[in-house]
Write a structure and sequence with these properties.
Layout (H helix, E strand, L loop, with lengths): L1 H16 L10 E6 L3 H10 L2 E2 L2 E8 L2 H10 L5 E4 L10 H9 L5 E5 L4 H9 L4 E4 L4 H12 L21 H7 L3 H11 L4 H8 L3 H15 L4 H6 L3
Helix pairs in contact: 8-10, 9-10
Length: 232
């Protein structure tokens, strides 16, 4: 009788401590960078797992905090990065993050639905773009594509990592110039002077001026202020 009770207790104990997801499934770690706490809480609550794989969320409210978190955790699989944070403007945060951690898989997480911004993000090294206005299913599919890039079919088919928004010929002309021009344009639109751009990119001042001149020509405008006004 005692032996039967001991075996029964061991059996019950093993069931009680068995992990919910099974020992063979490793969790995915995602860093969410957004300056709105409500957004962070909502996303983390909505996506606690994907197709049976647990998602471990880390979060940050600023770019510097995000860089610190990423640098102290070698197991982060992907990053969702908001465009506008308190300590960086536009795609500057993406540029700085990739410069610090070139191998990071970063998707922009933003309410901005602009084809030109999507193209800029892609050219600067983002691996995806998640609109905040997307449905839960769309976000789920994009997260799956981000975390399992090798998957193309199946129950969790990959959604588009880069959604398409209406574009104009103006955007196409700039996109054709290449990633360096997009980098320079982003800094011009952020209010940086040629000297500041030269310092941040390591290019000579004369080279920066040549890039800006080619942007003016591509957009068919005569001044820097006119170029900036096109994107306001």
């Amino acid at each position: 009788m005692q032996e039967a009770f001991r075996q029964s207790s061991e059996s019950s104990s093993s069931v009680a401590v068995a992990p919910v997801y099974g020992s063979a499934i490793s969790p995915k770690r995602v860093l969410l960078v957004d300056d709105h706490e409500l957004v962070r809480v909502g996303v983390k609550s909505m996506f606690v797992e994907l197709d049976g794989t647990p998602i471990v969320w880390l979060d940050a409210s600023s770019l510097q905090e995000a860089l610190n978190v990423y640098g102290s955790d070698e197991g982060i699989d992907a990053v969702l990065l908001d465009l506008n944070l308190a300590d960086c403007k536009g795609l500057q945060g993406l540029r700085q993050f990739i410069h610090a951690y070139p191998s990071a898989r970063i998707a922009i997480f933003s309410g901005t639905q602009d084809e030109f911004v999507v193209r800029q993000a892609r050219a600067l090294g983002a691996v995806g773009y998640v609109p905040k206005g997307a449905t839960a299913v769309e976000v789920k599919n994009t997260l799956a594509s981000l975390l399992w890039p090798q998957r193309s079919r199946g129950a969790m088919a990959a959604g588009p990592l880069f959604p398409r928004f209406p574009a104009s010929a103006m955007y196409d002309r700039v996109a054709e110039l290449g990633s360096r021009h997009l980098d320079i344009l982003e800094q011009v639109l952020s209010g940086c002077s040629n000297q500041e751009i030269s310092t941040s990119t390591g290019l000579s001042l004369g080279t920066v001026k040549n890039y800006v001149s080619s942007l003016l020509l591509a957009l068919d405008v005569k001044s820097r202020s006119h170029m900036i006004s096109l994107f306001r």
